[in-house]
């Protein structure tokens, strides 16, 4: 038995009230708010704590928040009007939509513009290869239109429209190899493209690496309810959807609504008894062995059925305690990419959780575009981790 979260009509989206919230504090008082027309202030207590811990990535976090929020706006527009022609298949046979390309172009453009004096490095999922083909002409035209409309909807910026060639070049800024030196942005413009196409969960996932470590992460989850996803039934519920998770190293994780409500600090579940824990796994069985998760859950005595959710929305939901465990076991030989986990990983870690591979090692984002890990990914709170790792390792041995 399992719970599949989603299956909502494509028309269910968040209406963004673009001008709804204007920060009332000055920039010098709260650098976290820099140039964010669609932002709202984190609680004062939070700002004070951040100041004590570290101020060093505040500007980058503000830029990431703006970039991911604008990209989410583009994605919501496309998901509402999803047409068959908006979907293409990449050479690795995964679907990619105009929204994946458009969101990557928007984020890449905003980030590079925000920090003109530092070398720009972006490790991102998409590239312009297929878009440069003759048969993609119309698609490229549509993406360029979407990108320009989205950038123009940001009332704080005054830029001239991008040409189709500008868009291709901007997408290809994401070809960086990352690595252990310097700073690199890491972007999944739409994580959970299959969920996006179904009208279910997806996320715009953006992180910053500094010397190989994730130092900030933003997850925009346009279809995630502001209340717990486990109790959420889109067919009967009128709960508001659209969440933004923001995390900075040593400064905690905050969640706000995508339309700009006040940010609140979030914490992972405090559950210590595995029998009371519920767990998340991929919606797509091809992405993670549901059988292995089920045998682990049985060993732990977990009673609740797994919640199957697309994308890094799982990390966001776990960071606020909707569920206590996230298990991911791709088929042998599958290489995990850093953009599928960087933002989610810091969102959970700063909310008090732990993310490791099946061997209990922390994820290493310093190796380039891929993660080099032992068997799978395991996420939970500090108290449950030892028992969970034992059950994971025993189940893998028995397989
Ligand atoms: N075979 C296989 N095994 C494991 N993982 C794979 C596989 N194929 C794809 N992917 C990656 O999974 C990303 C989607 O994340 P999830 O598995 O969490 O969500 S979902 O259940 O697929 O909806 C998805 O991210 P996006 O491509 O950004 O959607 C992929 O990077
Ligand atoms: Mg993909
Ligand atoms: Mg992905
Ligand atoms: Mg993607």
TrEMBL record:
Sample GO molecular function, one term: metal ion binding
Pathway assigned to this chain's UniProt record: Signal transduction; phosphatidylinositol signaling pathway
Enzyme class: hydrolase
Any one Pfam family match given in the protein's UniProt record, by short name: Inositol_P
Catalytic activity, as annotated: 3'-phosphoadenylyl sulfate + H2O = adenosine 5'-phosphosulfate + phosphate; adenosine 3',5'-bisphosphate + H2O = AMP + phosphate; adenosine 2',5'-bisphosphate + H2O = AMP + phosphate; 1D-myo-inositol 1,4-bisphosphate + H2O = 1D-myo-inositol 4-phosphate + phosphate
Family membership noted in the UniProt record: Belongs to the inositol monophosphatase superfamily.
The protein's name: 3'(2'),5'-bisphosphate nucleotidase
Organism of this sequence: Handroanthus impetiginosus
